[in-house]
Design goal:
homotetramer; 301 residues; alpha+beta; 3 domains; two-stranded antiparallel ribbon
Chain lengths: 301, 301, 301, 301
């Protein structure tokens, strides 16, 4: 067995735990870093053979969004995940899916539970995220009522089955937190796209946990060069709009003229802001722009 | 306003009720029967102009699975549907979807309920379907416990929100029967494919109700010629395998030789059965074949 | 190396010739017959474990168009194919593709040529197919003029490159018969769909040659049980419309009443034909129906 | 007829010429700017109703790559395009397509021709693009030989048809520059993705001409707010990698310390370059980074 085969065999069926009772594991993989190179080189023909080594080529392809060579590798995993989280997951339409059927079989007897120190408050800053953790005494009450609810949903489901209700109907009031299992198969390009969205800070904590596990425990060892490029060009990237670009250029020019050194002030920033922002008291796009320039060390508050 | 525009305006936003609190309604439509013809004629060029009228062409295309012209019409609907049913729905990956977000807003305060006379027993004949209705006295108990469960899931959800739990986490134990809403946009070919699978007798009752409503209330008036062809060539079709075909041919030949008239007996059928079936006591494929020949009036039990 | 690995290694990179200068070869494969079973069993859960053996399950799935388990296997091939044929090929949108770039590199110096005994006449029976071969003396002239044309396209292309014309522009008048190469990766379900359409008698000869080679030389040895089911339920299947079905039923009933034995005559057939056909002198749907009943041995001319 | 209907009717079937004998025209459209808003608001539920006006919401969605609401509008166009260009076009797999069939009908009697002042040299800077125009005297010769070649391909094609060769075979040596026609239907999100790639400076001139025409003549008037956002956030955007970001931050910090004002020199840039670049004489990624900082006015050469 070659080195690659050993690595794959070591990973295959190894269950990486996620949440209280979920997991992800590798089932199969087609290709490695060199498959991306192989596919790219057919596009380029003999022309590129010696121009660049594999790592440089992979990085070039990912940086310039030449996506098709990354479609030439494929990964299949098995996941155990709460239905709530799975609902978000399969909004990505480019994967192949086989899910456990609760029409055909009795539902998996497990629902995601929340420890007293895991309850999150509604985010103040945005309407869809979570904020700070709630105090533990509140958490105790919440977890207790979660247990009570799970007990009732479970006993109701079981009572229905005992009374002979069809499985497809009996399941109707299972909580969204009920675990399901599925095979999920996707090409590397679409997997990276999924991960870039679902490892993002705006994604819900639960699916971020799954994504990070898939990325770091499975994709990274299997495709080390691609993963490095992904971190440099996707996860670590910043995107400047036309308005951002032009603002920076104006800021540099005026700073050059006026002999000012960085970092620049909020006032300097506002002086060169986009014309369309000037009249606005609150402007999310301006706030986002300022945030980017802060992260670049161009401005400081 | 032309006749078509009037028809569309009449349908648009008209809510066709499904289940106890769901609905489907047309939001927008691109094209009509003639769009299918228009697209087909570009493929065929001038060559086919006079060969056949529109109805004949549409029927020919559908009968011979020339699918691309049917992709040239598009329908957008708004649905209100239990999440349980929606989970099956969006397994079809060829549609565009925008769903109500229970991260962003408080969940819709409605879950599908079941009347005492609507509880279905587990099918005896297959593992995944429903059989007869359960007796009403049993149904009374089941409905009562459903109400109790819904009351608890509702109060638990509300208590979480009041205690400041993030909406994305508070929703975790909502029942699968909770209603959601979504815009769903799909081309006519893929819609017909969806309907052929979900109007089928093997589909779950709930999604069949939605499919039939979409088909009969929306697609049929908007695309009458396509719909007629769909009923003749998809819903009303029968599919014979190589083994079925060869069995019929053998049966006809031996009946011809022996001077037997139809319908033929089970014994006649078994005499000409496929070689590979002969040794088997139980054989699902043989049962299916016999069922087809019964429906064709070739055999009778 | 296990048996499977040996089989795969034996096939990998083995070029199966197609046409005068084309080929297909296996690059990589994920899964085998048992991957289909594995995926199906997660859907069915524990419920189906002992009900049926693998072959029976695979056949059941394919017969009943349960397509998702077949998406869990994946094949990657390398093809060398005339652009003309490739144009039809990539109309199938469900595959991953990396094609040789004639912007980046000089075009492959080969175009498909036709031997004097390979020129086909226009089909009389349908507008899009080929009929009989043309006489060889005509073929000699056609092949000679093909050579003359290829010589000019080749020298023109080379002259452009020598004069410094950009490759992306120089290629504009290459003949459609010019060979290209591509990696092509697709899941087993979509591959079977592709093959069922492109191995069909209505497909153009050239793409049928490629399809048959892929099917018989690559898919069949790699997925023997799936391939057998595919031949029985796809390639060898017959599809009866509602009108066909009802006609057969009427024919059986009247034959039973009148004591007639099969095969039945054209007149018998016409007596029970669909009401909507009666008024029509020419009716393609009726002709198709009669053809099916002939193949079933129910009628004879 | 409302304003919108008038606009659509004015555009519909209006042929915008592209190249010497090509065109694009609108066939149908579903939705407008407000359809994007409509779809987004169902996702957000009542929560967002008053938070932002439509333009602000559309811009927010596009800036943050919330792509699904843009899938809720759909455009159908008819194009006449050289097959060479069309080959690149249909590599985008997310559209619906019906193309003129040269199996069914005689090929369109037109191939793209090149004026003496339109011949482009091979790019020196990259392997796949075009550079300067070639001198007109050279162009005269190239155009003359193009005409000669077109004359022969045309007469050969016609001779084959006259001798009775099947259309599907006769076409095999048509030049790639032969025009074809197709209906092409795509949702707004995928259309914008197509345009961002094909209006790009790296795309071939011919497909850029088509893309710009579609974008500016059809999409812009039909979806003015979306188009403005597209120009600001896609076409005019710049993407900074992790390495770019960190370099800028280091540059700002050292400039702050050393009291240097922008723009900075190549030497300043090299001092803070990424560690992994230092050892490299040639480094494309470094060149790209320097180029970005130039465009931002941060460095100057």
């Amino acid at each position: 067995m070659g080195e690659r085969e050993e690595l794959v065999e070591e990973l295959r069926w190894k269950k990486f735990p996620v949440l209280d009772d979920g997991f992800v594991c590798l089932v199969d993989v087609m290709g490695d870093d060199s498959s991306v190179v192989q596919a790219a080189r057919v596009s380029y023909g003999a022309g590129t053979k010696k121009v660049s080594d594999d790592r440089t080529l992979i990085r070039y392809l990912l940086r310039h969004r030449h996506t098709t060579p990354f479609e030439m590798a494929e990964i299949k995993i098995l996941v155990r995940v709460p239905m709530d989280c799975w609902r978000q997951w399969i909004r990505h339409r480019t994967a192949n899916v086989n899910e456990y059927s609760t029409r055909y079989s009795v539902a998996i007897d497990s629902a995601q539970t929340t420890r007293p120190d895991e309850w999150r408050s509604q985010a103040a800053s945005n309407r869809q995220g979570s904020g700070e953790l709630l105090p533990t005494d509140m958490g105790e009450k919440l977890t207790a009522s979660e247990q009570e609810l799970h007990a009732l949903t479970k006993s109701t489901y079981e009572a229905r089955l005992e009374m002979g209700v069809a499985r497809e109907q009996a399941r109707k009031d299972l909580p969204l937190a009920t675990y399901t299992e599925a095979y999920w198969k996707i090409d590397l390009h679409n997997l990276l796209h999924f991960l870039s969205l679902r490892m993002d800070v705006h994604a819900q904590q639960e699916i971020r946990d799954y994504s990070r596990t898939i990325g770091e425990q499975i994709v990274k060892p299997l495709f080390p060069v691609v993963w490095e490029a992904f971190e440099d060009y996707r996860m670590g990237a910043m995107f400047l709009t036309r308005l951002d670009r032009e603002l920076i250029a104006r800021l540099m020019q005026s700073a050059g003229k006026e002999g000012k050194t960085p970092p620049y002030s909020k006032a300097d920033f506002l002086t060169v802001q986009d014309e369309t922002w000037k009249e606005l008291k609150r402007c999310r796009e301006r706030d986002e722009c300022f945030g980017k320039l802060q992260r670049l060390g161009i401005v400081a508050e």
